[in-house]
Amino acid sequence: MTSHWTAAHVAAIDRATMACAPLLSKPQPLIEGIDLWDYWPVQAEDGSQALIAGGTLFILLSAPALLDPDARHGMARLRLMHRVGDKWRDLGLLFDDGFSPGSREWSGSAILSPDHGHITLYYTVAGTRGEDVLSFSQRLFETRAALSVEGDAIALSPWSTPVEMLVPDGIDYVRDMEGGGAIGTIKAFRDPAFFRDPADGAAYVFFAASLAQSSSFWNGAVGMARRAPDGRWDLLPPLIAADGLNNELERPHVIVHDGRYYLFWSTQQKVFADDGPAGPNGLYGMTSDSLAGPWRPINGTGLAFANPPQAPFQAYSWFVLPDLTVQSFADMTGIAHVPADPAQARRHFGGAPAPDLRLAIEGDRLWLA
Fold it and tell me: Which family is annotated (predicted)?
């Protein structure tokens, strides 16, 4: 059954008392001349960060650092990096030129096999290969590569030919992704996040989606699919609907904590409906006693925490791990408004991982520890 995130939930957010992340300084770039954003660790099937060569492998979106930081979205390529403690090592672009069937590579998740022999990547292909004008079509693909580790040397075999996992059906999920083409207006079929349900061992992916049976422009949803015994993915109805409320529930993912399920997503103030309440840029979520629901907004509103009011755009794309660590990237730091001038935006854009945060959870209540 689909659960609903509603205007009444968001209207109950009290900006005077809501939890806010600490102020973030603009970080130093990890790779000079390269912007990095939306990133995720290679995980074990239980969702924990996999220990590889004494640290963690991460996959990040990357692009050359142009004058306008927003230009990165049209050039995004997946990049592999290794972190040991606070030291990052660049392992280069994940795929060879022309490998992906699109013009850009967007977010997903990556899972290490139980024998540590290979990594399976679930990711978003945006656009089509060779297109002259960038389109906003989004497709979900999976591919895998053998992993070998000798000391601190990490190697991945050539990735297998990407296989399309799911196709929007036009019944539950919108097929046309364009939505006007501006940032915040495009529709969603992206960000696949793998989840193994400990209750029955079934494999799922959750993804950002848009509702097909909606009369509202603001028709964001969290979609889901389950892997069938033959290896195919079966598309299921949306897990969460924000119909009439919000256009983008981005990078949705699920963890289990103390026997409860917690579903998290990121969203921004600018993608809430014009004629309703708007929440801040922040991490949002719902909780349930089972994957099937019903799902209840955490803290009664859905808001876990927001960026601080002095810097409401300082971080984005939060990713929660089962140990309640929260990872994100530094976005527009040290400024209360997004600059119209690209040069000024560049001076404030972080383009690197933000410091980790940590959550505390007690039932339906959640706060920053």
Answer: Belongs to the glycosyl hydrolase 68 family.
